[in-house]
Structure of Delta-aminolevulinic acid dehydratase:
Amino acid sequence: MNNNTEFKRHRRLRSSNSMRAMVRETHLHVEDFIYPMFVVEGSNVKNEVPSMPGVYQVSMDLLLDEVKEVVELGIKSIILFGVPNEKDEVGTGAFIETGIVQEATRLIKRAYPEILIVADTCLCEYTSHGHCGVIHDHDVDNDESLQLLARTAVSQAEAGADIIAPSNMMDGFVKVIRQALDEAGFTNIPIMSYAVKYASAFYGPFRDAADSTPQFGDRKTYQMDPANRLEALREAESDVVEGADFLIVKPALSYLDIVRDVRNHFNLPVVAYNVSGEYSMVKAAALNGWIDEKSLVMEKLTSMKRAGADLIITYFAKDVAKWLKEEN
Ligand code: PBG
Ligand code: ZN
């Protein structure tokens, strides 16, 4: 009919699997993923987190089996969270040499020296009140908390952590941690800063998994207001100036505009944290048969990379690694 069409035939580039693969702009690789793990005290514990089907709290004696699975799937990196039995006002368990993350790090590194261990540097899993720093007058004391966070980071590096990931949202945490690491001789250990972390309802299931729900109040005086976009650039800017090596944006899915902003404004690897609530929602719908889990997860993770993320921290890492293998 019309040889001189006045419209574009976009469908030409969608005509087959091979054609679509040829023009695809965004790809997922197993190297993009960091898998979170929860380590508990005791032995022979493998507790499924009720709100996170498929995610477990694992005791030290069973940990290496879990890590073996991760390594065999080709995943290059894990992030460790500790769930201690004992908590106190200042979160001592976070920075002692025998802390749960420190012990787990030494154990894993001995068995699998090549896996990259990211240590989450915060106090909330270790404080009796569940806040990410020391409490004075019912609020978190910024500067006093910094000293404890710096000690935590150094003890994690001493245990063999490859990357320090401070998630506490105190002002100046990158500066103080960088200084402490350098003074302790860890000039080569990078900081993956939770630079842009919103006060989000999407963390609910994580707080079950890590037993870190604040006992009073909330985290709104230190985590960011979800309504703010320009503030994210200020947060990221100060972390860059203070010496961050990676920038995390968290949560991911409702904040892809922020991922794009951070990617466009800064020249550091950007990490999207696909958080617990984002995982649980998909799992719940999948278990009900309401959605196609694999397609949906691949679509979500692809959208995070399309938005500008270089790396993704996700509880789906093992599933994705399996799916990517099936495709090849
Ligand atoms: C704590 C911390 C949180 C997460 C990682 N580290 C949550 C919080 O602020 O309570 C969230 C992870 C997730 O929801 O998957 N500093
Ligand atoms: Zn915290």
